[in-house]
Amino acid sequence: MTKYYSVYRGKSGIPKILTNWEECKKEVIGCKGAIYKSFKTEEEAIEFLSLSSKGKSEISSTNVVDEEKSLHLDMNGLVIYVDGSFSLEKGNYSYGLVAIRNGEEIYRDCGAGEDSDAIALRNVAGEVLGSLKAVEYAISNGYEDVKIVYDYQGVECWALGTWKRNKELTEAYHKSMQENMKKINIKFIKVKGHSGDKYNDIADKLAKKALEIIS
């Protein structure tokens, strides 16, 4: 039976999911403050990374995540914050995004997921959908550059191909973003979720709003 090793903090500094203990050991053994956990399913491993990224995971006191340094974003040009959400009650995921140009908010959007196969990935499906919608907005409005601001590492790593893509959703996301990168310059910027960042909080609320209005 395949086991999934979810490594939030390892030697490489890049959160990743591994399926081999030998590979996992190379990442975590000898790494001070390593954060990792094994799971029976890939969905659980992905959710662990998602919750760790947002600062919600239950991690032992010996493996506490250091507070990420506050990031002073360059708000020149087009900057789009994205976030995702999931409702167990409604069995669906959603995205929210807010676009800022030269420091002024210019656009908001949110919506619920339509891919039934992606529901198993919960809020992660919303995170990548939000990223796709953000780039779609930038391209359709004639921008040459866009900064995508996210709080879940997969938004960047799946787009760039630095994370393995074992699901149809993540592979499709990667291919779409690779095509988008031929049309527009995309810079990814990570912020800590639920840390008081104004626009990250707005994107989060928009994603939750999208779930509230569906029947």
TrEMBL record:
<dbReference type="InterPro" id="IPR002156">
    <property type="entry name" value="RNaseH_domain"/>
</dbReference>
<dbReference type="InterPro" id="IPR037056">
    <property type="entry name" value="RNase_H1_N_sf"/>
</dbReference>
<protein>
    <recommendedName>
        <fullName>ribonuclease H</fullName>
        <ecNumber>3.1.26.4</ecNumber>
    </recommendedName>
</protein>
<dbReference type="InterPro" id="IPR050092">
    <property type="entry name" value="RNase_H"/>
</dbReference>
<keyword id="KW-0540">Nuclease</keyword>
<dbReference type="InterPro" id="IPR036397">
    <property type="entry name" value="RNaseH_sf"/>
</dbReference>
<dbReference type="InterPro" id="IPR009027">
    <property type="entry name" value="Ribosomal_bL9/RNase_H1_N"/>
</dbReference>
<keyword id="KW-0255">Endonuclease</keyword>
<dbReference type="InterPro" id="IPR011320">
    <property type="entry name" value="RNase_H1_N"/>
</dbReference>
<keyword id="KW-0378">Hydrolase</keyword>
<feature type="domain" description="RNase H type-1">
    <location>
        <begin position="74"/>
        <end position="212"/>
    </location>
</feature>
<keyword id="KW-0479">Metal-binding</keyword>
<dbReference type="Pfam" id="PF00075">
    <property type="entry name" value="RNase_H"/>
</dbReference>
<comment type="similarity">
    <text>Belongs to the RNase H family.</text>
</comment>
<dbReference type="Pfam" id="PF01693">
    <property type="entry name" value="Cauli_VI"/>
</dbReference>
<dbReference type="InterPro" id="IPR012337">
    <property type="entry name" value="RNaseH-like_sf"/>
</dbReference>
